[in-house]
Design a protein that fits this description.
Number of helices: 6
Order of helices and strands: EHHEHEEEEHHEEEEEHEEEE
CATH topology: Double-stranded beta-helix
Number of strands: 15
Radius of gyration: 19 Å
CATH superfamily: Clavaminate synthase-like
CATH architecture: 4-Layer Sandwich
């Protein structure tokens, strides 16, 4: 088991002075947690904007002046934590049970989610409960044989999952190029919350054969098994109150574990996308 890279700061000003370290860790590791200071929401926003100035995110200095309703980057500030359903019986899910299945973030956007900045404002569950697990999809891709890599490079899948404006169907590539590192990155959804799981609909620009469909299905099962069982490649964020986590959501599969009760796990999240991102979705093959 691995743990996120840790950057320790003493104040908000110290975090800004450590911006180069934070950005270098984000680029190279895809996952880091900032400890030692309790960030206010305004400080969380300001740090995200400072990162966005360097990384060309849609969330950057000046986004407070962008007020176009749902298209504003500020609309991507949201409450989270998965402990907000008052009528839910959280006692049925222990710390080794999945509250949220393994998934890669919102692959259906043409301009994808690039990062999340998650500020754990309240955490009163026992230490080791409510963990978030991560696996780097570039590492998963590197574990495949060259032959399987070349096969998946040509694969397009069709799937359905609930999102704000519908459920799809969506058409997405299994492998995409990381916008910062240029590494090949597995981007196929694995969440069993999908209405229709991703299935192969095109290979090398043509309708796939039955053999190719079977091969893809086996590789998808391998991927899911690695996420569920391979602790050697798994990063675990063991949350403490006031942790500020920065995660590369283009490349990090992630899941949420149980063991907490109503109201015990609350964070403020910010999701960032490329500068000048649109809300266009992969709703047809021609969008790829």
């Amino acid at each position: 088991m691995l743990t996120p890279y840790s950057v320790n700061v003493t104040s908000f000003g110290d975090a800004l002075n450590s911006l180069d370290i934070i950005i270098d860790a984000f680029k190279s590791k895809g996952l880091l947690v900032i400890k030692g200071h309790r960030f206010s929401q305004d400080e969380q926003i300001a740090l995200t904007e400072a990162m966005g100035d360097v990384l060309d995110w849609n969330f950057h200095t000046g986004t407070a002046d962008i007020t176009d309703d749902a298209s504003s980057p500020r609309s991507a500030i949201y409450p989270g934590g998965h402990s907000d359903q008052e009528n839910r019986d959280y006692s049925t899910q222990g710390k080794d049970d999945y509250v949220l299945d393994w998934h890669i973030e919102q692959v259906f956007y043409v301009d994808p989610i690039l990062a999340g900045v998650w500020n754990m404002t309240l955490f009163t569950a026992d230490r080791g409960n409510g963990n978030t697990r991560f696996v780097d999809s570039t590492v998963l891709y590197s574990m495949l044989s060259t032959d399987d890599q070349e096969f998946l490079d040509q694969a397009v899948v069709k799937w359905e999952k609930p999102m704000g404006s519908g459920t799809g169907p969506f058409y997405t590539k299994v492998v995409d190029i990381h916008p910062v590192t240029s590494d090949k990155t597995l981007r196929v959804e694995t969440d069993h919350g999908c209405y229709v799981m991703p299935h192969l609909v095109q290979w090398a620009g043509s309708e796939p054969t039955a053999e190719q469909v079977s091969r893809y299905d086996k590789l998808w099962e391998w991927l899911k098994s690695q996420l569920n069982t391979n602790e050697d490649i798994r990063h675990v964020q063991e949350w403490q109150e006031a942790d500020l986590l920065v995660v590369d959501l283009f490349r990090m599969y992630h899941s949420v574990m149980g063991g907490f009760k109503f109201g015990e796990r609350q964070f403020t999240g910010i999701g960032v996308r490329p500068r000048n991102a649109t809300s266009e979705l992969y709703l047809e093959l021609g969008a790829l």
